[in-house]
């Protein structure tokens, strides 16, 4: 009797183990399906943010240049950490706002857009107040190639009279502020692609997008700011082709930096203006109903032009308002 009871108990345990195995297999299948869905949604979200991603890259590459050569990578790393902190705030904030106050998304993005345009106008105005001793970047690169040193070393030598700690902190703070607004737009776009998904899947997609974009952008930024050193390394090779390529890379670097400076400033107006226009009903409706159906070059370029014009105009108004506020306070 005891033996029969033991056999029945063992049979029950075996049945239970079979049930556990079946449920585990089912759960694993569901988990795999969820992971596949997250991966697919992440890919879609990254593709939809590609336009902002390009602006993010140009802006951050331009923002972190100008520091001493031996501090370029630490500054990139500091900004990358700041970017991760931004996204650690933005991911849960985006989910909470989307769940409880979705009407806040557009006004908040518009405020961020106005700030970007404000910074863009200030950057343009600063071009008219450059110090007279500023050297031309192309001439510096040619001198550097002749002396056998990286252009960034010459640039650092020209900046030796500046307080490096304060300058570096200002660079990092400015880049992190700009990154916050661009990251907010990226998170908003990514969230739009998974708005109908369960909250856990939305969170997983936003985290995946945040990590992927941060690694991609700041990995490329680190490569861009050290291009001149790669050129110098190639110039020390015995191969004539490597030396020629190294010289070309050194000559090209300042032109790239100058181009990124222009593109980065323009991106402030394009991204900021697009955030503002999206919240201004009549302009957005006109673009969607009249300009977009035209197709061709007009549909491609006109919205960008409108974004830049609106962004520059509102950025200028913000600059005037800030200046008036400072005067009222006696600053």
Automatic annotation (TrEMBL):
Keywords: Membrane, Transmembrane, Transmembrane helix. The chain crosses the membrane at residues 89-116, 203-225, 255-277, 297-322. GO terms for cellular component: plasma membrane. The keyword Membrane applies. It holds the Pfam family DUF808. InterPro entries: YedI. It comes from the Bacteria. This is DUF808 domain-containing protein. The lineage of its organism: Bacteria, Pseudomonadati, Pseudomonadota, Betaproteobacteria, Burkholderiales.
């Amino acid at each position: 009797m005891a033996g029969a009871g033991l056999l029945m108990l063992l049979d029950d345990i075996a049945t239970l183990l079979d049930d556990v195995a079946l449920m585990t297999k089912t759960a694993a299948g569901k988990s795999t399906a969820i992971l596949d869905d997250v991966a697919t949604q992440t890919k879609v979200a990254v593709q939809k943010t590609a336009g902002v991603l390009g602006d993010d890259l140009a802006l951050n590459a331009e923002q972190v240049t100008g520091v001493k050569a031996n501090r370029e990578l630490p500054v990139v790393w500091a900004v990358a950490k700041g970017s991760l902190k931004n996204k650690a705030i933005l991911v849960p904030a985006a989910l909470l706002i989307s769940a409880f106050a979705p009407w806040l998304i557009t006004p908040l993005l518009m405020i961020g857009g106005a700030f970007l345009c404000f910074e863009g106008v200030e950057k343009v105005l600063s071009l008219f107040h450059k110090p007279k001793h500023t050297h031309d970047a192309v001439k510096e690169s040619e001198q550097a190639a002749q002396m056998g040193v990286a252009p960034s070393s010459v640039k650092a030598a020209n900046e030796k009279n500046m307080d490096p700690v304060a300058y570096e902190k200002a660079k990092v703070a400015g880049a992190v502020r700009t990154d916050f607004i661009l990251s907010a737009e990226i998170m908003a776009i990514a969230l739009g692609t998974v708005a109908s998904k369960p909250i856990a899947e939305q969170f997983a997609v936003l985290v995946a997008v945040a990590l992927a974009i941060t690694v991609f952008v700041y990995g490329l930024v680190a490569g861009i700011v050290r291009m001149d050193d790669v050129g110098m390394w190639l110039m020390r090779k015995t191969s004539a082709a490597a030396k020629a390529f190294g010289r070309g890379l050194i000559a090209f670097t300042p032109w790239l930096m100058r181009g990124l400076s222009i593109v980065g400033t323009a991106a402030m107006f394009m991204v900021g203006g697009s955030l503002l226009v999206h919240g201004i009903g009549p302009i957005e409706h006109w673009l969607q109903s009249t300009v977009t159906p035209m197709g061709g070059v007009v549909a491609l370029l006109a919205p960008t032009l409108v974004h830049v014009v609106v962004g520059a105009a509102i950025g200028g108004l913000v600059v005037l308002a800030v200046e008036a506020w400072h005067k009222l306070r006696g600053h």
